[in-house]
Amino acid sequence: MISTIYLYLSVGLIATLVVLGSHFYQTREKLFGGSNIPEWSWKNRWVNVKDRIILPFFAVAVITLLWPFVLFFLAKEILGHFKNSPVSKTQEKVFEVRQHHLIEKYNLQELECREIMEDPMQAVPEIPFGHLNSAWIAFKENIQTNDELWFFKAEESKSDLKALVREGYVIKRRGKFVDNFVTRVESIEL
Amino acid sequence: MTAQFGEKLIIDGESHTMMTQPLAVYFELSGVKPEFEVSNTALWRGYVGTWEILRERLYLLKISANYTDRTSAKLEDFFPGYPDRVFAHWYSGTIRIPQGNIVKYVHMGYESVFEQDLIIRIMKGCVVSRDIIDNNYGVKV
């Protein structure tokens, strides 16, 4: 019985060293660029005592005693990241342009002329859609004779306070939207 | 999710930490999906970009990342012919630069609260406004 407790606490101690080592590697100093960590001062003495003494002591005690839970939550975070990655979200819900999103119709020449990028530092190619030109070329290959090209703007509500704005161009063929090229995506506050 | 490393932003020669990821928007719009090595839980995106605001425009200067095969990523991998400076014309939105001391540490994403936030609004890579928000009172300074 005693040896089991020792074994449990020993594993807990190793888990503590791993978790705290990882934490110190990812210090707030690294996270926030180093300029925002309050220096020790009597004015902030309670914050300093809490952050530098009480919380580390509490963390060591909790991890050593409850390491299976700590490892469970760590594994959950790592698995959760892959489940919630932007790529998998994109695959879940594909954006679709609707009739009421359409703003203005263009022909191909007008559109490309309108979207040529310029920069005084020459940090963008002076071609349609600049650094997004490769994606534009790929999209353009889908355009057929008699297709219509429309500029669209769509606003999708994400919550009571936020919405996602998408702008770009869409190919309309015989009344149906066949492909779109998004040039702006922005989260806005309502 | 663990608090995440910010991006680096240079304004008037001074380095800041930016809690916004304009490069993620580029990857989304261009369809490019690079496989970066994720070396720790404070950097799930796998890269840190260095940005600059110069002449009221947002530029990407550098990307610090390794691919999953351990080779280093370079700007030219994504922007051929532009090894040193890329105009971020694809980005519209706000960028957040925390300022002052941290007043509330939150162990998640960019949720920590600082005394002030400099909010720069960008439209197609160009700066359109700058505001400082005092987080103690939630008002513009």
What does this structure look like?
The complex is a heterodimer of chains A (190) and B (141). Chain A has helices at 2-25, 28-32, 45-65, 67-83, 86-92, 108-114, 133-140; strands at 102-106, 148-157, 162-173, 176-189. With 190 residues, chain A is an alpha+beta fold. Chain A has 2 domains: 2-82, no CATH class; 99-189, no CATH class. In chain A, α1 (2-25) packs across α3. Chain A is elongated and about 80 Å long. Chain B is mainly beta and 141 residues long. Chain B has helices at residues 22-30, 75-78, and strands at 7-11, 14-18, 47-54, 57-65, 86-87, 93-104, 113-123, 126-134, 139-140. Chain B has a 5-stranded mixed β-sheet with strand order 2-1-3-4-5, with no helix packed on it. A 4-stranded antiparallel β-sheet of chain B has the order 6-7-8-9, with no helix packed on it. In chain B, a hairpin with a 2-residue loop joins β7 (113-123) and β8. The longest helix of chain B is centred in the N-terminal third of the chain and has 9 residues, at 22-30. Chain A binds chain B through residues 22, 25-26, 28, 30-33, 36-38, 74, 77-78, 80-81, 86-87, 90, 117, 119-121, 123-125, 130-132, 134-135, 138, 182-188, and chain B through 1-6, 8, 15-17, 24-26, 28-31, 33, 40-42, 44, 54-55, 57, 59, 79, 81-82, 85-87, 89-90, 92-93, 98, 100-102, 105, 112, 114, 124.
Concise summary:
In chain A, 47% of the residues lie in helices and 22% in strands. With 190 residues, chain A is of the alpha+beta class. The longest helix of chain A has 24 residues, at 2-25.
**Main interface pair?**
A-B, 39 and 44 residues
How much helicity do the residues of chain B have? Answer: under 10%
Alpha carbon gap, first and last residue of chain A: 61 Å
Q: In terms of per-residue confidence, which ranges of chain A show pLDDT below 50 for 5 or more consecutive residues?
A: 28-38, 85-92
Overall morphology of chain B: globular
Helix content of chain A: 40-55%
